[in-house]
């Protein structure tokens, strides 16, 4: 096992407590932070790339039929495997938005396509549910179970704001444990049912949920009512009978007191590594555990942890998620070091032995891979504008690269169209550029002129577009012509057939 420091390259501010890491079609995706808005789906989803000691992020495109998914912190994330009868993907429920609103929506995130240069395009659809619906919450878990040839989602735990009738001015933002109900969701029909089991008497949040066939194991968690992390382990069995399901629960013995831990799957069998998390509000859990699920039940064994650095041992909080194949990403705050420009240090933890990992199945964690650190600064939503796809991703692109993955293009952003002289009268100097529109952060807003071979990129500022007009042009995949190609007068109206 190894512990490798990572250097975030121009992306340290995008990795914050509450993020989720997903593995989809061989890609590692970061979800839940500031977004780079696209034409069709502004959201905070990034591709994660680790090269030597560098950590880099790339914005991910969404298909034109995708719905908007807000950046959600601490949602419930459950993996969909192809053998569940669905395309490989993820279910995302609940979570907190950067404005501290709590969501009750359920989204399905799947791969739409891979374009030129192996760039990923995702599809996001919101699932409509009927029946006994789970309320808005965060810090809960979502798992897939299979029984009698059918499958369903199991949602449990979490916390939310006080009921509206109990909220006062002083307690308006106070949160409480959600009732300890188990929700079963039929994805095919969108039917949802709530179940109360006597063994589950207390609410819990930021626990772990590991599923195998018709069983889900709930491990650890934090209870607000008692302000404790009791060493609890429950096995929930779900039988999807014809007509109505039957649920049973059994309390098992464990000594593990933990919340907000990271789970990484280590192989095609149900083998996991548990690391990180908290034993109490002021004590991190520095140990690690291996977990195996089989026909007999769950087996938990202590595992030798990495040689934690002084920064990790002395930090009050930490967060992270699974990178797949027995590896994880951990972030710890710099905690007031004035000479440190980044907010967090980042490390890659690997439990793979030498020679392992080449034929290992992707991680299938269903646990809440986040932190119950509540005091992180709310993020501003969608602070950078970037319109359309990059030139080499267009179907009519003439790069000659085809579908070949070109690492040089990925590393050198000067080739992607951001820092080009877009026209003869270009006014944007990449060395001295300052935000021109209120929605820009790191780079100038750009838009694709549809004229020319495959089109070409122009800076919206050079086209003398007002911010209102720029936002209107970003609403769809319509054609736009720059001023040199007889473009639209920014002072005119926008008739429906202009584009």
| Name of the top-level CATH class of the largest domain | Mainly Beta
Mean pLDDT: 76
Profile the largest sheet: 8 strands, mixed
Task: Identify the overall geometry.
Answer: globular
Please, what is the CATH homologous superfamily of the largest domain? Kelch-type beta propeller
Roughly how many Å is the radius of gyration?
Answer: 24 Å
Task: Briefly note the CATH topology name of the largest domain.
Answer: Neuraminidase
The neighbouring-strand order within the major sheet is: 2-3-4-5-1-29-28-27
Low-confidence runs of at least 5 consecutive residues: 35-42, 357-419, 489-499
Question: Helix count, per DSSP?
Answer: 3
CATH architecture type of the largest domain: 6 Propeller
Strand proportion, as a percent range, falls in 35-45%
Specify the helix fraction band.
under 10%
First-to-last CA distance? 56 Å
Number of strands: 31
Count of all domains: 2
Class computed from helices, strands and strand pairing: mainly beta
């Amino acid at each position: 096992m190894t512990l490798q420091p990572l250097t975030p390259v121009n992306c340290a501010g995008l990795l914050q407590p509450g993020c989720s890491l997903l593995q989809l079609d061989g890609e590692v995706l970061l979800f839940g932070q500031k977004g780079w808005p696209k034409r069709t789906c502004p959201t905070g989803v990034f591709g994660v790339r680790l090269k030597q000691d560098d950590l880099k992020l790339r914005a991910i495109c969404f298909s034109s039929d995708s719905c908007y998914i807000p950046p959600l912190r601490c949602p419930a994330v459950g993996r969909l495997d192809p053998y569940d009868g669905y395309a490989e993907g993820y279910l995302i429920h609940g979570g907190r938005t950067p404005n501290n609103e709590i969501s009750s929506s359920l989204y399905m995130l799947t791969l739409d396509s891979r374009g030129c240069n192996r760039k990923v395009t995702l599809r996001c659809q919101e699932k409509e549910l009927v029946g006994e619906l789970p309320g808005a919450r965060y810090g809960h878990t979502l798992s897939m179970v299979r029984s009698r040839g059918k499958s369903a989602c199991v949602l449990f735990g979490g916390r939310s704001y006080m009921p509206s009738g109990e909220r006062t001015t002083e307690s308006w933002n106070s949160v409480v444990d959600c009732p300890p109900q188990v929700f079963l969701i039929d994805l095919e029909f969108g039917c949802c049912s709530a179940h109360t089991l006597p063994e589950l008497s207390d609410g819990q949040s930021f626990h772990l949920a590991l599923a195998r066939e018709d069983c889900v194991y709930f491990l650890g968690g934090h209870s607000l009512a008692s302000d404790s992390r009791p060493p609890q382990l429950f096995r929930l069995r779900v039988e999807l009978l014809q007509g109505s399901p039957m649920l049973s629960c059994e309390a098992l013995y464990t000594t593990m007191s933990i919340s907000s831990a990271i789970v990484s799957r280590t192989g095609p069998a149900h083998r996991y590594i548990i690391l990180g998390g908290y034993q109490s509000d002021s004590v991190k859990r520095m140990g690690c555990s291996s977990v195996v699920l089989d026909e007999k039940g769950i087996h938990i064994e202590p595992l030798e942890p990495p040689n934690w650095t002084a920064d990790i041992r002395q930090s009050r909080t930490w967060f992270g998620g699974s990178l797949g194949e027995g590896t994880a990403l951990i972030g710890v705050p710099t905690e007031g070091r004035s000479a440190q420009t980044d907010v967090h240090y980042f490390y890659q933890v690997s439990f793979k032995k030498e020679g392992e990992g080449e034929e290992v199945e992707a991680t299938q964690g269903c646990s809440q891979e986040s932190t119950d650190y509540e005091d992180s600064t709310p993020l501003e939503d969608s602070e950078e504008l970037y319109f359309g796809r990059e030139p080499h991703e267009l179907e009519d692109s003439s790069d000659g690269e085809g579908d070949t993955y070109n690492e040089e293009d990925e590393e050198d952003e000067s080739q992607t169209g951001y820092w080009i002289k877009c026209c003869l009268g270009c006014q944007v100097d990449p060395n001295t550029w300052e935000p021109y529109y209120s929605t820009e952060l790191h780079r100038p807003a750009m838009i694709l002129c549809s004229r020319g071979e495959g089109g070409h990129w122009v800076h919206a500022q050079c086209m003398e577009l007002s911010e209102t007009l720029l936002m209107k042009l970003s609403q769809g995949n319509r054609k736009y012509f720059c001023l040199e190609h007889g473009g639209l007068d920014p002072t005119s109206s926008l008739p429906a057939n202009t584009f």
